[in-house]
Amino acid sequence: MNPATSSRSSSCLPPAAAWGGLLGDAESVPPGRLLAAIAGAGGTGKSALLDELESRFAARGVEVRRIRDDQGCCALPTRGAVLVDSAQMLGDDALSRIHALVAAPEVSLVVAYRPRRISNALELLVRELEQHHAPVVLGPLTAVEVAERASRLQDVPEPEALARVVVEATGGLPWLVHRYLAAATAGWRGAFSKDNDSQLPPGLLDQLAYELDRLEPTLRQLLLLLAVGFDLSAAARPVEELGNPDLLVLEAKDAGLMLPDGRLVPLLRRALLETTPAHQLHGLQRALVDSLTAGGLPLGRAARPLAHNGLRDPRVAAALERAADRALPTQPGLAAELYDEARAAGAEGLETAARRAQAAYVLGDLDGAGRILDRLLVQDDAPDVLRAADVAAAMWAQRGMFLRGADVYRWLGPERAGASAPLAVVAMVATGDRHGAEEMAAAPPATGSPTLKAVAVRLMAQGTLATIGDAPAQVLPTLIRASDMMTASGSLDPVPELPAALAALAALHGGELEIADSVLTAAIDGGQGGTVGRRRLLLLRAWSRMLQDRPEGARAAMAEAAAVDHPVAPRDELLLLALDVGLARRTDDVPALVRAWRRAREGLLHVAIDLFSLLPLGELMVAAARLRETARLEPHLAEAWSLLDRLGDPPLWAVPLHWQAVQAGILSERPADLAPHAAALVRASRSNHLAAVLAAAGRAWVQVLSGQVEADAVETAARGLATVGLTWDGSRLAGHAAGRAEERRDTTRLLACARDLHPGSADTMDPVQAPAPAEPPLERRPAALGRAGLPPSLSQQADSGQSSRLSTRERDVARHVLAGKTYREIGEAMFISPRTAEHHIARIRRRLGASSRSELLDQLRLELVDEAPSSGGPPPPVP
User: Fold this and answer.
1) Which of 433, 473, 602, 656 has the fewest beta carbons closer than 10 A?
2) How does DSSP classify residue 38?
């Protein structure tokens, strides 16, 4: 054996189990005679274990003889301890003399050897020793043992992580573990991370290359062939030149160069491939490819290492492309790597451009996908053009530019659309091109068996057309079935919009909030759209829960969407920003509303309006009206109304936007702006249930704002809003009407209605948390605060000594309100019912002319300013 291999064992420690098996827990050798054999491949720590035995025998005063060759056996002692290292290197005569020591009663004998190829004399000796002590077999170190060694080094932040990498690279072979950790300098350990485990300590490969170069040439050639990927059982010229490869494999295992199962150690494979001259390496790689193809065998796993090591061969490139095509539907990340490796191996790339763009799209690299498609679609006869068109349309949709995706399908044309025609229908409906959508729907259907995905996209097109057609009853059933089929298919193929998102949007626009939530939950649980679609589905679920007046559920869905490990597309960013606006508006959190509006206003500049973005646009329209920023939305609203007009003002899509325009008109105090939208709701109410409910609610709002509060009409309208999922809107209408009702019983009735519609209200409801009578524009709210934190006008009234506008009883109630008590708590404190407390609060609102919760609290502080504690304690909580 080459000296380089025999010197490895002196510098590494064996597995911890070996110490306990041979030495026990004591600090010295156990008393009595020790007869044992230690078996292990080269570099497993046999010599280190003998060194420890020698020091422990010496500590006990026992004379030790260390034998490493035949000459050491010339005169053996009759007492003491004899430790034999590398016994497989000794001749039969020497082994016979050592064997005789077993019969010497005062001699301890420990023999270490490599077990792969041993002589008959050594076999007899080992069997004799095994009758006295179980053999100590040394093998690879475990991750725990490597971590324990790594923790002894300095500046190792994560020894467990380092141990995982080391064991994976070395197979746990002790000599390689020792080399690895010894080369891990302090600076390199500080830079180590689990995400960069391909980096090796400096100098390690050079050290290993030096040791590998000192091997017998035939043995090194065997290792190099295994590193390249040759199968030793197959007929190939380089393998045949080795002579007897089986004997060489035994020798390699014996030398600690291969794992016990016959695999080459990964670290040694890397050292061989990275330090062998390129001409020699590439010659062997081509010989491997020749051997496999001549035998009609696929390159399989051999293709990737060949490409990694710089081999350019069309056969390797073709194998990698085939592997990438198989991985693309379910493992886009792997597919992207394989396509890149195929190009590195010599593939031109044009044939796979559409598939590479698809992989980039699914991984969230919209820019990368766009660059690939730009180079592909300018070709006169672009290959795989249908896939390229689908990826391009989906990419533009993610960017919030549906019109550009529809342009791609127009360029393709109905005659070439084939299986992409249903997706073209969706894109064209989204951009208001009804004629183009109908042409695509009439295009000749694709041939072939109807797969789950093909059925899903066909149903998706039918359902999308139905949303602008004369059969609204078919919309939800068709789109829900499309969603079910897409989920069942497990497809990650790009689509302009997921069928689950379309079904949810149709349900949300139709007031079927629970159906929307159910469809979205099923799609999310089923993994529809993979990672690329998960965030959008979660955000739509958040929208559904926001409309259901479930703010905590909405925020939970938003948090889950934010945790998705995928780049945020512009259209999803707009949806997220609009959710922030909607939640802030519904909780009357004005500072949060202002911040959210500013972010959303900028986000809106990055996208174009399409049919599927009307919900966030409507929410922003209401917020803009409240903040007196409507002018900023006029171009976007004009685009939306134009789109709906081109589609014939379809009720499903138009009604919610008209309702939000009515709310915006109310907040802006511009009746002229409100009238056309109210009229549109009335027209649509003849055939659309949601429109009928919203039209009734609009009439009720107009009457309330004019001071005509008809409790029956208001309550019917408010509860009607709740039936279509708009509980918050209904509660707000009833609360506003209660603040303007003249009759006491009407106020009581409407407040009770508002409380019933608002989730979590009941007699325990905080009186100041009842739905606000109105949302006054911010310009009408005080811009600065005066004395005691009051608005300047109120502060001046307090300074002028204005007399109280409340009765003694009402002042008592006001004190409890400012203390933050609920109706029930006020009733218990004043020995009245919660309903009576509620009546008092309503009367106080009217007397003080408070139009919002914060204004009511400000007025109450003014009324009771003389009773304020002098300590300057914290003010009562303001909802």
Assistant:
1) 473
2) E
State the Cα–Cα distance between residues 275 and 208, nearest whole angstrom. Answer: 9
Enter the tokens of residue 69.
Answer: 């060759």
3-state secondary structure of 264: strand
Instruction: Please report whether residue 359 resides in a domain.
Output: no
SS3 annotation, 80-101: EEEEECCHHHCCHHHHHHHHHH
* Side-chain half-sphere CA neighbours of 523 within 13 A: 36
CA nearest neighbour of 509 among 644, 699, 675: 644
Position with higher pLDDT, 322 vs 668: 322
Rg (CA), the chain: 40
Within a domain: 32? yes
For residue 621, give both structure tokens: 């329209």
Which positions ≥6 away from 450 have C-beta within 8 Å? 458
The residue with tokens 């600690």 is 256
Q: Distances in Å between the alpha carbon of 348 and those of 312, 318, 379?
A: 12, 10, 14
Domain containing 287 equals: 143-195+203-297
Q: Higher pLDDT residue, 287 or 581?
A: 581
Q: Is the pLDDT of residue 772 over 80?
A: no
Q: What is the pLDDT of residue 778?
A: 36
Q: Are 539 and 558 in contact (CB under 8 A)?
A: yes
Residue holding tokens 């020591």? 101
Q: Give 215-235 pLDDT, tens digit per residue.
A: 899 999 989 888 888 877 776
Report pLDDT for 160.
Answer: 84
Q: By three-state DSSP, how is residue 111 classified?
A: strand
* Number of residues written out for the chain: 879
Give the model's pLDDT for residue 155.
Answer: 66
Supply 818's token pair. 């400012």
Rounded mean pLDDT, 660-668: 85
Task: Measure the CA–CA gap between 272 and 230, rounded to whole angstroms.
Answer: 14
Ordered strands of the 80-84 beta sheet: 64-67, 80-84, 107-113, 35-40, 136-138
Q: Is 814 exposed, middle or buried (0-12, 13-18, 19+ CB in 10 A)?
A: buried
pLDDT in tens, 235-252: 678 877 788 888 888 888
| Residue 580, both tokens | 């922030």
- Which structure tokens are listed for 67? 């034998």
pLDDT digits (tens, 9 = 90+) for 196-211: 556 788 888 888 999 9
**SS3 per residue for 605-655:** CCCCCCHHHHHHHHHHHHHHHHCCCHHHHHHHHHHHHHHHHHCCCCHHHHH
Pair (158, 292) in one structural domain: yes
Number of folded domains in the chain? 5
Q: What angle do CA 744, 747, 750 make, to 5 degrees?
A: 150
Closest by CA position to 499, among listed 512, 489, 514, 510: 489
- Token pair of 872 as six digits: 């300057």
Digit-coded pLDDT (tens) for 713-723: 888 888 888 88
The alpha carbon dihedral of 831, 832, 833, 835 has a sign of negative
Strand 136-138 with 35-40, pairing: parallel
CB crowding 653-668: b at 16 or more within 10 Å, else e = bbbbbbbbbbbbbbbb
Q: Does residue 771 belong to any structural domain of this protein?
A: no
Tell me the backbone φ, ψ of residue 567, rounded to 5 degrees: -55, 145
Contact 316, 307 (CB under 8 A): yes
Average pLDDT over residues 493-508: 96
Q: Provide the pLDDT confidence category of residue 435 given band limits of 50, 70 and 90.
A: very high
The distance from CA 632 to its chain's CA centroid, rounded to whole angstroms, is 35
Tokens of 375: 């180079």
Is 521 domain-assigned?
no
Picking from 109-123, 194-208, 645-659, which range would have the lowest pLDDT averaged per residue?
194-208
Asked if 527 and 490 count as a contact pair (C-beta separation under 8 A), the reply is yes
Judge whether 626 and 775 are in contact, CB under 8 Å: yes
Mean pLDDT of 567-595: 91
Asked which of 761, 780, 799 is the last residue of a domain, the reply is 761
- Domain end call among 614, 648, 682: 648
